[in-house]
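thought: user wants a sequence for this fold. calling inverse folding tool.
action: design(structure=
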């Protein structure tokens, strides 16, 4: 039987490497990757993940706090 934890560790290590990051970026920029993103974002889980990522990204942006607060309020209004 295959040791999934070992394979998961190998995959995680590769995806964290510069080569793995480049592979992910290339895929996400491809037409197939764009379809995958759109499909994922159409799901409740995908929308929840996008909201979390948007909040994290928003916190790190160099934009006026009022603009950040407007986005936060809009996200909170969507449930």
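)
observation: tool returned 79 residues.
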């Amino acid at each position: 039987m295959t040791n999934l934890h070992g394979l998961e560790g190998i995959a995680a290590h590769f995806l964290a490497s510069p080569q793995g990051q480049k592979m992910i970026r290339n895929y996400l920029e491809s037409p197939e990757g764009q379809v995958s993103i759109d499909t994922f974002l159409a799901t409740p889980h995908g929308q929840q993940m996008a909201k979390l990522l948007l909040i994290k990204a928003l916190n790190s942006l160099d934009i006026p706090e009022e603009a950040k607060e407007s986005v936060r309020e809009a996200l909170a209004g969507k449930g």
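thought: summarizing for user.
answer: Here is the designed sequence. The mean pLDDT is 90.
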